[in-house]
């Protein structure tokens, strides 16, 4: 279930990237805004919509408020009078890139069983997304790794994270950081199977793409 949901999400992002192929650096993805019940049902959400609850999203950290804050920050940086570069020579794409790279700055990620076995992890959208957010991605664990991203807690790398007290979290954490333009609380994105796998045989790491 987790992997199928992740695949659908990645396919959606891939479609957007294809449509905006020549202008990807200008593209700011935002969390889909579901107000009406029909929208929630269309995208598979079973919870009540905002309209059914007779309320709107929170003004402080809702999807619309989040993207508005990002746009305001980009605007402020771009029109900063203290910058010596002439306004006509400035490139908003570089400002967007700079702001985006601050999100996961200082994080070093390792992926475990997130990608299909017949792929190169560096070519995968989730890997590229993490790098665009300022994270360093690698294929093997070492003491400098801060996060292990996995879809199951029984893999060798996931168990390494638990033993070494590293963050172990689901790939949706990266997506949430990407939509929110802010590092999200790791504890909100637990990996399935963490408790029930204790004492059980470990899940073998994928030999090709792990």
UniProtKB/TrEMBL annotation:
<dbReference type="GO" id="GO:0003723">
    <property type="term" value="F:RNA binding"/>
</dbReference>
<keyword id="KW-0804">Transcription</keyword>
<keyword id="KW-0539">Nucleus</keyword>
<protein>
    <recommendedName>
        <fullName>protein-serine/threonine phosphatase</fullName>
        <ecNumber>3.1.3.16</ecNumber>
    </recommendedName>
</protein>
<dbReference type="InterPro" id="IPR001357">
    <property type="entry name" value="BRCT_dom"/>
</dbReference>
<keyword id="KW-0378">Hydrolase</keyword>
<dbReference type="GO" id="GO:0009651">
    <property type="term" value="P:response to salt stress"/>
</dbReference>
<dbReference type="GO" id="GO:0046872">
    <property type="term" value="F:metal ion binding"/>
</dbReference>
<keyword id="KW-0479">Metal-binding</keyword>
<comment type="subunit">
    <text>Interacts with RAP74.</text>
</comment>
<feature type="domain" description="BRCT">
    <location>
        <begin position="99"/>
        <end position="191"/>
    </location>
</feature>
<dbReference type="Pfam" id="PF00533">
    <property type="entry name" value="BRCT"/>
</dbReference>
<keyword id="KW-0678">Repressor</keyword>
<keyword id="KW-0805">Transcription regulation</keyword>
<dbReference type="GO" id="GO:0008420">
    <property type="term" value="F:RNA polymerase II CTD heptapeptide repeat phosphatase activity"/>
</dbReference>
<dbReference type="InterPro" id="IPR039189">
    <property type="entry name" value="Fcp1"/>
</dbReference>
<dbReference type="GO" id="GO:0005634">
    <property type="term" value="C:nucleus"/>
</dbReference>
<feature type="region of interest" description="Disordered">
    <location>
        <begin position="190"/>
        <end position="210"/>
    </location>
</feature>
<dbReference type="InterPro" id="IPR036420">
    <property type="entry name" value="BRCT_dom_sf"/>
</dbReference>
<keyword id="KW-0694">RNA-binding</keyword>
<feature type="compositionally biased region" description="Basic and acidic residues">
    <location>
        <begin position="194"/>
        <end position="210"/>
    </location>
</feature>
């Amino acid at each position: 279930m987790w992997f199928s949901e992740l695949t659908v999400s990645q396919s959606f992002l891939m479609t957007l990237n294809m449509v905006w192929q020549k202008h990807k650096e200008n593209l700011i993805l935002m969390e889909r805004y579901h107000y009406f019940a029909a929208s929630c049902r269309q995208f598979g959400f079973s919870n009540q919509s905002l309209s059914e609850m007779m309320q709107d999203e929170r003004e402080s950290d809702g999807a619309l408020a989040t993207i508005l804050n990002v746009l305001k920050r980009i605007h402020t940086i771009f029109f900063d009078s203290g910058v010596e570069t002439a306004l006509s020579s400035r490139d908003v794409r570089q400002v967007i890139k700079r702001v985006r790279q601050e999100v996961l700055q200082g994080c070093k990620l390792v992926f475990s069983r997130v990608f299909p076995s017949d792929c190169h992890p560096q070519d995968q959208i989730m890997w590229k997304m993490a790098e665009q957010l300022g994270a360093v991605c690698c294929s093997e664990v070492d003491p400098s790794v801060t996060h292990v991203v996995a879809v199951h807690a029984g893999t060798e790398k996931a168990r390494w994270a638990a033993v070494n007290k590293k963050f172990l979290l689901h790939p949706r954490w990266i997506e949430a950081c990407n939509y929110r333009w802010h590092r999200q609380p790791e504890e909100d994105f637990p990996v399935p199977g963490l408790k029930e796998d204790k004492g059980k045989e470990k899940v073998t790491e994928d030999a090709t793409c792990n």
